[in-house]
Amino acid sequence: MNCPFGIKPRWERRKDARPQELLAAALDLFVEHGYAATRLEDVARRAGVSKGTLYLYFENKEELFKAVVRESIVPAIGDAEEYIASFEGPSAELLRWVIATWWERIGASKASGISKLLMAEASNFPDLAQFYRDEVISRASAMISSMLERGVARGEFKPMDINVATQVLIAPVLMLMLWKHSVGPCDQRILEPQAYLAQLTDMVLHGLLTTEQGGGGCADTR
Questions:
Q1: How far is Cα 134 from Cα 157, in angstroms, rounded to an integer?
Q2: What's the CA gap between 151 and 133, in Å, rounded?
Q3: Which structural domains are found in the chain, ordered by start?
Q4: pLDDT digits over 15-70, tens only?
Q5: Do residues 107 and 193 lie in contact, with contact meaning Cβ atoms separated by under 8 Å?
Q6: Do 60 and 82 contact (CB within 8 A), yes or no?
Q7: Which of 83, 71, 100 is nearest to 196 (CA)?
Q8: Is pLDDT at 220 greater than 60 in this prediction?
Q9: pLDDT grade, residue 213 (50/70/90)?
């Protein structure tokens, strides 16, 4: 029977929402307990469905994990790639946007705990580590490299070893995400992420900008 005003029955809306509910529950448990210790029955229970229902959407735990990464992290990389490709302003402004937006989209979210999970368990699950390298690490590194190459080509950034500079830029942000999910909750000394990232950006730009672009005095720490 057709429903008035295009409103779906409650059970149908529930069915449509199940994959997202399962992914949200899986992300919570992967971050809380790690990959090895997360059981599919626990994911199903937290999502409020049966284990059999989970198997209707995901073949196994590995496919569920991949779906979590593709849902919570990969889209942010795609959006950043598009923004960098179309951006027409100064490269310093672009770098600020990339760092701030990465934290807003990934670092400040529960998805940031995936980085800690992979570092802890990659050796035990090499296939997952390779998947994460292909779909997250390689793409994110290429994105950062393209931004640095843009700045050098425009004469805004000093010549540099792009591969090395890319890793130097990624490492402090990765450290902040790891801190958040390890000693951060127990550390009585407060490390405020926005202040940390503002200081990081300021220090990076002091090293990157040519003299013509204000490399001798980059005081803006937005």
A1: 28
A2: 26
A3: 4-68 (1.10.10.60), 73-213 (1.10.357.10)
A4: 555 899 999 999 999 999 999 999 999 999 999 999 999 999 999 999 999 999 99
A5: yes
A6: no
A7: 100
A8: no
A9: low
pTM exceeds 0.90, yes or no: no
Share of the chain above pLDDT 70, in %: 84
